[in-house]
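ok so heres the complex, two chains, lmk if somethin looks off
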Amino acid sequence: MKLTLKIWRQSGANDKGALVDYQLDGVSPDMSFLEMMDMLNEQIINEGGEPVAFDHDCREGICGMCSMYINGEAHGPDRGVTTCQLHMRMFKDGETIYIEPFRAASFPVIKDLVVDRSAFDRIQHAGGYISVNTSGNTQDANATPISKIDADKAMDAATCIGCGACVATCKNSSAMLFVGAKVSQYALLPQGQVEAADRVLNMVKQMDEEGFGNCTNTGACEVECPKGISLENIARMNREFLKASI
Amino acid sequence: MSGFISSSIARKVAMALSALFLIFFLIIHLSVNLTSVFSESLFNELSHFMGTNPLVQFALQPVLIFGVVFHFVMGFVLELKNKKASTVKYAKNNGAANSSWSSRNMIYSGLVILAFIVLHFIDFWFPELNVKYIQGDMSGLLEGTQDFRYFEELQHKFVPVWRVIAYVVAFALLGVHLAHGFQSAFQSMGFNNKYTKTVKSLGNIYSIVIPLGFIIVAVFHHLNH
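and the predicted structre for the whole thing:
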């Protein structure tokens, strides 16, 4: 495959940045998107240029590090996958591919395609945990009965890898799908009840302080989420928030 | 509590509550309007009741005006805040891949509806206020007759084609606005469960039936004057 790549290049946080065109030949349809990026970087290095900086880690779709906006969609045109699990067979020979960083005022660009998503960490610190004793006298898991439906829903919410695709794809840069998933994960389980009210209030407060936008229920986040986190989690967060406030 | 009021979720809930209120109001408004197609006298009676009943005029009407103004102001406030949250735009963004046109353009369909409401107030509400509260004529009668004036005024308004076209376009945009707004209001209120599919279907029906009803009234009176 021969591709034209339009890639966002930005040398640092304070640089203006611009799209730069690259030609890449000999791309295999079996390559992952990141392998294609590796190939491009080898070509750039061989030509004496500065390779494109991009986030990646596990490359098996579970760590949440990769974060590209490809052809107008977070993690590209495929569904239920992260960029590392996206394959070049999704594109056509001769195609022009736009590759941009995740955009949001709360996700400032660090370099090229790398953005600072530490706002998510701070939201997690505000309440995305339970205070249980895990030092040797842990309760037997089966001692706390949990309905299968709730356990499944909590597990579904817990599959959120915090990649930020929801924010990147949202026209309002809202983080409600992420926070909704993190709140739901605990709100559905008995272990999360003790701190439920404080958790949702603190996490929503932190989310607002980080400058994320307001959700208008377009549902784009649910479609683009590589883990298929449902909008149901946002509705649950809204209920939890109202319950804790009133 | 102050944290609650300034939170993003409270704004969302307030937007949804005012939307649900307006959704309910549209049913009442259309019900009264539709009587004009079937019975001139019933429409006149209802209009006179609505226009002179103190509870409607001095309790429900201010609440309605507040609901309308609040919904618009909050809509603009949210739009500005959201613009601030997403300062840099993508060179290529494929919004159609993951969301409906109506959901992404609520502010524009809302602006058309706002422009329509201004026209609608100039057409009907301001003249009503003038007759009743400035000229002090609470009789509801056509000058020099014993007949109510409401039906006659309604038909007279829809004689010009431009006004009928403006109303039809605005109602079409209202339908687009409601196509997203109806189910969105429920989601914002935290309602997302096994009945959500039913709510979405109801929303689809509502967003077609209500604007279509208003269009029928406007076109009917244009053709039957």
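quick notes: Chain B is about 80% helix and 0% strand. thats all i got rn
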